Amino acid sequence: MQLKSISRELALLLLGQIKKKDINKVTIESLLSKAIESLTQHWREQLDLCASKLEKANQELLDSELQEDAGSLKKSRNHLKTCLIDSENILNSLSESLELPRLIALVDQKEIRELALKRVHKVIEKQDEIDKNLDSVMEGWRLKRLPRIDRDILRLAFVDLNDFNTPTAVTCNEAVNLANRYSDEQGRRMINGVLRNLQSANLILNLK
Q1: Considering just the CA atoms, what is the radius of gyration of the chain in Å?
Q2: Whole-structure pTM value
């Protein structure tokens, strides 16, 4: 993973745990520890949910086989297939999250730490203006209605484009990569759409 990509992911994790008033009072290490706890709990809950769905789908499949109902059997098999796909996606995300301890080790690298903190400060300092511009291309949605992780991915992308002069293609690719790791299918589609609209509307403004 490239240095800038690591700093961007680190910034996302920090934003998820930080409050504006506390930005100068906390350490990266303590925030990352909280981020790990939060993500671990999230994936544990998701795995428990999938386990419950798989058990239910399996029971429905057994019942439909006993009843020899072709329609119910097909429905149960499709349900079971969907549950297995969901479980695979969750396990893949969980596997990717195991890289977090490596991020903790990397925060000692001065350049990564500084880049991450610069991104965090930019987002927090300009959040109202950033959110206003993102809201303007949401097409019927409001940014505040999105999960926090999706909002922060979009905010970081906006900062990348505006303050760090990151090429649009790179910015979109990085945002999608973060969405793949930390969001869901709906979140990925929303992030893609907002970034496309943002580019089309030419709202990459100088907020300095």
Answers
A1: 20
A2: 0.68
Residues of the chain with pLDDT under 50: 1, 203-208
User: Is the distance from CB of 152 to CB of 12 less than 8 angstroms?
Assistant: yes
| Residue whose entry in the numeric block shows the structure tokens 């006993």 | 66
Classify residue 55 as left (phi > 0), alpha (psi -120 to 50) or beta: alpha
Q: What topology does CATH give the domain 126-200?
A: N-utilizing Substance Protein B Homolog; Chain A (1.10.940)
**Lookup: tokens for 6:** 């690591």
Q: How far apart are CA 176 and CA 170, in angstroms?
A: 10
Spatial distance between the Cα atoms of 151 and 133, rounded to a whole number of angstroms: 12
Query: Which CA distances in Å does 78 have to 4, 74, 92, 104, 194?
Result: 42, 6, 21, 41, 32
- Maximum separation of any 2 CA atoms in the chain, in Å: 68
Q: How many residues does the structure list for the chain?
A: 208
Q: pLDDT, tens digit, for every residue of 164-176?
A: 888 888 888 899 8
Phi, psi (rounded to 5 degrees) for 207? -100, 10
Start-to-end CA distance of the chain, whole Å, equals 29
Q: What is the pLDDT of residue 21?
A: 55
CA distance 176 to 150: 10
Neighbours of 140 (CB within 10 A): 4
> For position 150, what pLDDT does the model report?
93
CA proximity to 153, closest of 107, 119, 114: 119
